[in-house]
């Protein structure tokens, strides 16, 4: 009888411990940040779960320079090691204004409600890892660098690729600007350079002055917002291409005089 009582007690204790473990599971924010943090589901619910806000609270470590926060990317990893990378500026209301949220209805899941499909959703999120690009300008444009190789495409080559014209409107300084931008898609330029463009490929475009900004190809493929390298602006050919993240609220990611694309 004593053995049966002990066995029953052990089973009851096991049943009470398991839910507690689930309720205290945390999501970490780490990588290139000054104040790493961990959040439980209840804390995320109280904070609203906005990915841009959570990363901002961790204080990404930024290099000196203008608008270097636009170089920040965040990789969200869930169960089974599934990972999705975002340019933080895509999520920022001041730039891409395309929010991603950690929901807590059924575990901790990442949802991007403005996307055309759920390919950037992540179940059972465990980590948000922040990276900040240190990519520099190239002496000869257009340099395309990956983890394994570097290729240089002459800017004139871009003018011979299939292109499209878009009307881009964005805030810059104290006013609003509107331009007609014409050029090939960023994904096509990468393909010409021998880079297989995946949906979550992150690219940092760097201008001749060292100014840089990050985008991901999923912004176009899944988010529905074209990404171009413009070679003609308002009918005037450009000496060096301009990154066009169509739909951005402000013009910070419209990198002019692009000499380098850092792909990761």
UniProtKB/TrEMBL annotation:
Q: What is this protein called?
A: Oxidoreductase molybdopterin binding domain-containing protein
| Superkingdom of this protein's organism | Bacteria
Q: List the lineage, top down.
A: Bacteria, Bacillati, Actinomycetota, Actinomycetes, Pseudonocardiales
Q: Which organism is it from?
A: Amycolatopsis pretoriensis
Keywords, A to Z, come to:
Signal
Secretion signal, residue range per the UniProt entry = 1-22
